[in-house]
Structures are given as structure tokens and as C-alpha cells.
């Protein structure tokens, strides 16, 4: 949604956003270091995608008008399943049978494919999104740990309460993405390390039957 606004001339990657201690939420490893100088939209996008920085996500969400506007953006691109209702970190609550802040694997796979390969974004913005996802620094124990040498992956992982863990990715052999993979788990009593291993095992099975 941010890159769409960039393409439309409504936002600039170089615009600096200033914020305060009151804006910081749980798990903000990058934004907590820039309270005095702020961060550019580009830097916030990188922090949100490559480091899962929650404050960066909230600040970017503010630039597009909040959760309802993100949901509207998704609806406009044909995704009538995915919805965002709250901000970080409340959106990670994962209450059973609560439709707030939810999606489905097929819906997210379709949306990610449109963002990465469709005409929704300019070529430059599509490449920028892929670059950020390829530089993901917090998803190493998941699909990346199962990839053979030479495989390409651009991904974004997430975690929530009640054993929730997930990842969306574009991956493929020969250094090129050829398929979209979306994995979501929830309701597990497993530790985070165990959930990571489970997703890695799913990834290994996917690659075996590629």
C-alpha cells in the first residue's frame, strides 16, 4: 500500500518521519534506536519487512490512513478475505473464531503474487518489495533453513499469540522465484523454536516434491 502511494506521487521514500517514545511498541529493534533523528519511509519499510519492527509497521500504517485503509486497499485489488482491524501489537492476539486481523492462505498467496508480478505496482516498486523481502533477517530458521544451495527466496514471517506462526514467500530453484508459498499455523502449544522447525519441515517436504 505504501509503494502504491509512492507510485501515485502521494508519498516519498525519502520523507523523514519523526516519532516519540510514546509511539514505541513491543519489539521495535530498529525504530527504538532512532528516537532523536527519526527514519525515512524507505528505512521504515526496510525495518518492518526485514526485521519485523512493530513500531515501523504502525508508523507506515499511519501514513496510509490506518487499518481500515489497508483493508480497503486489499479489497480494491481483489482480496475480499484479508482484513486488518487493529494496530501492532494487538493485531497478533489470534483469538479463536475472531475474524479481526485475519486472512486465508489462498487469499494471501494471490495477493502476494499480484504485488510481486502484477501491474498493481510499477516495475521499480515491485523490485523494491522483492529486495526488501529477499533481505529478511528474521526468517532464517523457517523456509530458508530448508533451501538447497542456489535457491531464491524472498519472504516475510510473522508470529502471534496462541501458538501462531506464519510465513509468506516467493521461492524457486536456479536463483529465481517460481512459486508463492504461504504457511500459517495457530493453536499450537509448541515453543517458537518448535514452530520454526515445523515450518522448516514443511518447506523441506515442499522442495522434495517441487
From TrEMBL:
<feature type="domain" description="Beta-lactamase class A catalytic">
    <location>
        <begin position="1"/>
        <end position="185"/>
    </location>
</feature>
<dbReference type="InterPro" id="IPR045155">
    <property type="entry name" value="Beta-lactam_cat"/>
</dbReference>
<protein>
    <recommendedName>
        <fullName>Beta-lactamase class A catalytic domain-containing protein</fullName>
    </recommendedName>
</protein>
<dbReference type="InterPro" id="IPR012338">
    <property type="entry name" value="Beta-lactam/transpept-like"/>
</dbReference>
<dbReference type="GO" id="GO:0046677">
    <property type="term" value="P:response to antibiotic"/>
</dbReference>
<dbReference type="Pfam" id="PF13354">
    <property type="entry name" value="Beta-lactamase2"/>
</dbReference>
<dbReference type="InterPro" id="IPR000871">
    <property type="entry name" value="Beta-lactam_class-A"/>
</dbReference>
<dbReference type="GO" id="GO:0008800">
    <property type="term" value="F:beta-lactamase activity"/>
</dbReference>
<dbReference type="GO" id="GO:0030655">
    <property type="term" value="P:beta-lactam antibiotic catabolic process"/>
</dbReference>
Amino acid at each position: 500500500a505504501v509503494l502504491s502511494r509512492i507510485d501515485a506521487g502521494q508519498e516519498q521514500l525519502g520523507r523523514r518521519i519523526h516519532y516519540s517514545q510514546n509511539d514505541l511498541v513491543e519489539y521495535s529493534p530498529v525504530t527504538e534506536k532512532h528516537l532523536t533523528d527519526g527514519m525515512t519511509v524507505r528505512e521504515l519499510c526496510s525495518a518492518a519487512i526485514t526485521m519485523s519492527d512493530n513500531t515501523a509497521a504502525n508508523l507506515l500504517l499511519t501514513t496510509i490512513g490506518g487499518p481500515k485503509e489497508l483493508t480497503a486497499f486489499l479489497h480494491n485489488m481483489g482480496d475480499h478475505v484479508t482484513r486488518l482491524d487493529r494496530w501492532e501489537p494487538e493485531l497478533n492476539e489470534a483469538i479463536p473464531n475472531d475474524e479481526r486481523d485475519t486472512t486465508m492462505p489462498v487469499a494471501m498467496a494471490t495477493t502476494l503474487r499480484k504485488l510481486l508480478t502484477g501491474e498493481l505496482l510499477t516495475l521499480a516498486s515491485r523490485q523494491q518489495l522483492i529486495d526488501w523481502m529477499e533481505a529478511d533477517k528474521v526468517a532464517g530458521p523457517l523456509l530458508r533453513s530448508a533451501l538447497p544451495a542456489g535457491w531464491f527466496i524472498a519472504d516475510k514471517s510473522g508470529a502471534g499469540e496462541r501458538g501462531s506462526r506464519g510465513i509468506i514467500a516467493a521461492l524457486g530453484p536456479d536463483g529465481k522465484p517460481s512459486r508463492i508459498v504461504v504457511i500459517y499455523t495457530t493453536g499450537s502449544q509448541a515453543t517458537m523454536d518448535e514452530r520454526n522447525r515445523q515450518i522448516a519441515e514443511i518447506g523441506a517436504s515442499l522442495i522434495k516434491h517441487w
